[in-house]
Structure formats: structure tokens, C-alpha cells
Write a structure and sequence with these properties.
By secondary structure, the chain is α+β, with helices and mostly antiparallel strands. The protein has helices spanning about 5-55, 70-75, 155-190, 190-205, 220-270, 275-305, 320-335, 355-370, 425-435, and strands at about 55-60, 65, 85-90, 95-100, 115-120, 125-135, 140-155, 315, 340, 350, 375-385, 390-395, 440-445, 450-455. The protein folds into three domains: about 1-160, Beta-Lactamase; about 220-305, Signal transduction histidine kinase, dimerisation/phosphotransfer (DHp) domain (Helix Hairpins, Orthogonal Bundle); about 310-460, Heat Shock Protein 90 (2-Layer Sandwich), CATH 3.30.565.10. It binds adenosine-5'-triphosphate and magnesium ion. One of its GO terms (cellular component) is plasma membrane.
């Protein structure tokens, strides 16, 4: 059987993808922040350099003399990957020293207030500081203004950000893996009750149909255990029905088969053809009884098996069904000289199963013919009463005593009025069919003697 992968794998994948996304977003943010931090730190160094250049500038003999402090440049050039550029101009923009083509800022900076900016220089983006401040010479009481630009290639800042990024990504990846490992371990532990239940189910013996216990299991498993128990209960019911059917069938067949055997033995010894014919007729009757008994048993077993399942129903006219049954039974009633009449058959529409309805009416007609006897009167009628469809089967036979009216619905129960062969299943079938239609069967007296059976069907259609 093909399963849809393990839960562990599904969970890993569904955790890994979002974690990866988080990692990427975090990496981008980390790089961005690291770069900002690097800018803040390195800009300060740039400022120190620019400041020391500006502070080291003197006026000598009326001329500006830029004294490049070694320290400021060394500290910047200490790292091999950084290149430092500088440029000092006087107030009129005359170049004093440094890189003549170093790009100035867009706006002229205010005194002492440094301006930081990025600009393209020698094929790369460099970071620059522009500082403008006056230079005083107390001795000659002169003041001049200088503008200092110091630029620095960005490799160091980017390397710093990259370094931070790699460190963070490693840490995050490790944490992510740890989270997945923890989740998987928790899952393994969480699934333990399910494994225990599976082991319990597979260890069951075939004939052990006891319900599975619910206490001691996590509540999430309760629906599964409940469904399992429902299934087991269904199995138990089905097995019981089957067992009962086999026992009943054996019981039903035992007597007719014994009778048949006796008849065959007698027939074998019969010297006359007429006598043999007589035996054969008895054998046919036994066979007919046996086959009717088995048919009844099969019908009831089939009905009981279907109990609980949705019954396939259609819109039916009860009057139509009664007429059809009367037609089918006409040869039998004619033979038995039974007066079968349709009395007050009015159209009544309801939801029902046509085959089962025929079986029900057939059983009631069969009973009336059997127990009211030849020459009796049998009336079929329909009515709609209080939102229910009603079927009425009335005979003028011996009726059923009030004390027996419950008992006759039991399987294999034959009443005191029973005559001839019968299995005692007819009314059980009638009650089962009515029950599956949510209907009910009521036995009553016929005025002047006899049995009146009324079947009520609740699913009346207008
Ligand atoms: N119309 C009736 N008049 C008098 N007694 C009846 C009538 N219908 C049923 N009974 C009594 O009720 C009993 C049970 O009837 P039911 O139809 O269940 O079984 P059965 O007719 O004996 O056997 P089966 O119908 O299975 O061949 C009968 O044995 C009979 O005594
Ligand atoms: Mg019967």
C-alpha cells in the first residue's frame, strides 16, 4: 500500500522551508545592519583623520601649510584592503595637497560640521568625509579657511559586514537544525501512543472483538479509538447475524429434509404407481415448505444485515402497490377460493422501497389466506391518516388473541392459530420492513371476527 510519506519527513519539509525563508530574510537584515554598524565605526575614523589633517594645517609666512599627520593616514592604511585618499583645498578652491580629482560633496559644508557621502572614484564607490574649518594664525592675526576631503575605499566595511553575516548565518542554521531535531524528537515521543495502539490492533486474535479501551490514551486518539470500536461493534453484530443465520438455516432445513428422506424411503418401497404419485406429491409439498422457509429466512437475514444503512427509497403510490399485489396473488386466491377485495383503496403517496413494500404486503396476504382459510374474505385498503400513509389488510379468520399480538412478531414464533407448515418469520419480516421505513405495524380485530393489520408509514408525500 502506498502511503503519503512519513509524518516525520512531511514535518521536516514543512519546517525546513519556512526556516530557510526566515534565514534568508534574517541574512539580508543582518548584512544591512552590519553595514550600517561598519559605516558608523569607520566614519568616526574618517572624521579623526580629516580632523587631524585640518588641525595640523598652519599659516606660515602667509601661506597655508598642510602638515599631513602620519598617524591619521597610517591608522587608515593599516588594513591592506583599504585605500585612503585625501585632498586639501583653500577657501577659493585652490588645491593645496592630495588627490586633485577627489570628488567634493554636492553642497559646501558648514564650518566644523562634517559631511559624509559616497562617490564613484577610480572605478569604485568610496566613502568620503568633507570638513571645512578656519585656520587661525595668532602671530600674524590671519584667518584662512580650508576644506579637507578624506575618502576611503569600501572593502573593509563590506568585509566587516560579510564577516558578521557569515557568523550570524552559521549560528542561525545551527539553531534551525536544533529546532528541527527537537521537533522530531517531540514528534517521536508524541506518536508513541499511536504506535502502542497499532501494536495492540495487530496483536489482536481474530476472534477477539472486545472494544479497545479509551482511558490512558491522549484525547486526540479518542475519535480513532471510538471509530475502531464502532467498527468492531459492527463486525460483532454482523458475525452474530451470520452465526444466527447458519444456526437458523440448519434448524429450518433439518425437519423438511428428514421428512423428505422418510418419504423417499417409503416411495422406494411403494409397489403401486398411484401410491408412488401420492408420495411424490407429499415430497413436493415438503420441498415447497422448505424452500419457502429458506426464502423467508434469507429475506429476514438480508433485512437485518441492511439495518442501520440508508434505505433506497422512491416516491410510491400505496394504492398502486396494493393493486399490483392483488393482481400477483389472484391465481392463489382463485385456487383457494378466497374473496380478495380492494376496499377504500385511495391514492396515498409516500417515500418507500418498492421491493420491500411488495414483500410486506405479500406476507400479510399469505397469512390471511393461510390462517383465515379457504373461502374467507380478504380486503385490502389504503388511507392517509394524521400525516401517515396507512395500509389495511383485513380478513374474517380466527384473528390473533390479544395476548399473542406481541409474540407473533418474534422470529420463529408460530401462534395458536397456526395451521400447516410455516416458519414463523412472516410477521417478523413485516415488522422489520416497517421499522426500516420508520413505520409500525398494529394488529387489531375485524368487526365480526378476524384479523385487521394496519401498517403506518410516516413519510407521507403531498
Ligand atoms: N391473518 C392471521 N390470522 C390468524 N392468525 C395469524 C394471521 N397472521 C398471522 N397469524 C399468526 O401469527 C403467527 C406468526 O405469523 P408469521 O407470518 O410470522 O409466521 P408464519 O405464518 O407462521 O410463518 P411464515 O409466514 O414465516 O411462513 C402465525 O403462526 C399465526 O399463528
Ligand atoms: Mg406468515
Amino acid at each position: 500500500m502506498k502511503t503519503r510519506g512519513t509524518l516525520r519527513w512531511q514535518l521536516t519539509v514543512s519546517l525546513l522551508l519556512p526556516l530557510l525563508l526566515v534565514l534568508v530574510v534574517d541574512a539580508v537584515l543582518t548584512y544591512h545592519h552590519s553595514l550600517q554598524a561598519a559605516h558608523a565605526a569607520f566614519d568616526r575614523t574618517l572624521f579623526t583623520s580629516a580632523k587631524s589633517i585640518a588641525d595640523g594645517t598652519r599659516i606660515r609666512h602667509g601661506k597655508l601649510n598642510v602638515d599631513l599627520p602620519n598617524l591619521s593616514l597610517e591608522s587608515l592604511e593599516g588594513a591592506a584592503s583599504v585605500r585612503v585618499f585625501y585632498r586639501v583645498d583653500d577657501a577659493s578652491g585652490r588645491h593645496l595637497t592630495g588627490y586633485r580629482d577627489l570628488p567634493p560633496p554636492d553642497a559646501v559644508p558648514v564650518f566644523y560640521r562634517p559631511v559624509y557621502y559616497d562617490a564613484a572614484y577610480q572605478g569604485e564607490t568610496i566613502r568620503l568625509i568633507a570638513l571645512r574649518q578656519p585656520v587661525h594664525d595668532v602671530a600674524s592675526a590671519q584667518t584662512r579657511v580650508i576644506s579637507v576631503l578624506v575618502g576611503e575605499s569600501g572593502e573593509m566595511r563590506r568585509a566587516f559586514a560579510r564577516h558578521m553575516l557569515v557568523k550570524t548565518v552559521w549560528r542561525q542554521a545551527l539553531l534551525g537544525l536544533l529546532v528541527i531535531a527537537i521537533v522530531l524528537a517531540a514528534l517521536h515521543r508524541g506518536l508513541q501512543p499511536l504506535r502502542a495502539l497499532s501494536a495492540e490492533v495487530s496483536a489482536r486474535r481474530e476472534d477477539d472483538l472486545a472494544p479497545f479501551r479509551t482511558p490512558g490514551r491522549p484525547s486526540e486518539l479518542a475519535p480513532l479509538v471510538r471509530a475502531l470500536n464502532q467498527y468492531v461493534a459492527r463486525l460483532r453484530r454482523m458475525l452474530a447475524t451470520h452465526r444466527r443465520f447458519f444456526a437458523d438455516a440448519a434448524h429450518q432445513l433439518k425437519t423438511p429434509l428428514a421428512v423428505l428422506r422418510a418419504q423417499v424411503e417409503l416411495a422406494e418401497r411403494e409397489p403401486e404407481l398411484a401410491g408412488m404419485r401420492q408420495r411424490l406429491t407429499t415430497m413436493r409439498c415438503s420441498l415447497e415448505d422448505a424452500s419457502r422457509g429458506v426464502a423467508q429466512l434469507l429475506a429476514l437475514a438480508r433485512l437485518e444485515n441492511e439495518r442501520g444503512n440508508a434505505l433506497p427509497v422512491v416516491a410510491l403510490d400505496l394504492a398502486e402497490a396494493v393493486r399490483q399485489c392483488a393482481l400477483e396473488w389472484a391465481p392463489v386466491t382463485h385456487r383457494r377460493r378466497v374473496d380478495l377485495a380492494l376496499q377504500d383503496v385511495v391514492p396515498v403517496r409516500f417515500l418507500g422501497n418498492p421491493q420491500l413494500l411488495q414483500e410486506l404486503i405479500g406476507n400479510l396476504i399469505d397469512n390471511a389466506i393461510r390462517y383465515a382459510g379457504s373461502g374467507c374474505t380478504l380486503a385490502l385498503g389504503t388511507a392517509s391518516l394524521g400525516g401517515q400513509a396507512v395500509l389495511i389488510v383485513r380478513d374474517n379468520g380466527p384473528g390473533i388473541p390479544a395476548s399473542e399480538r406481541e409474540l407473533v412478531f418474534q422470529r420463529f414464533h408460530r401462534g395458536s392459530t397456526a395451521r400447516g407448515e410455516g416458519s414463523g418469520l412472516g410477521l417478523a419480516i413485516v415488522a422489520e420492513i416497517a421499522g426500516q421505513h420508520q413505520g409500525r405495524v398494529v394488529l387489531g380485530d375485524t368487526l365480526g371476527g378476524g384479523l385487521t393489520v394496519r401498517v403506518y408509514w410516516p413519510r407521507l408525500l403531498s
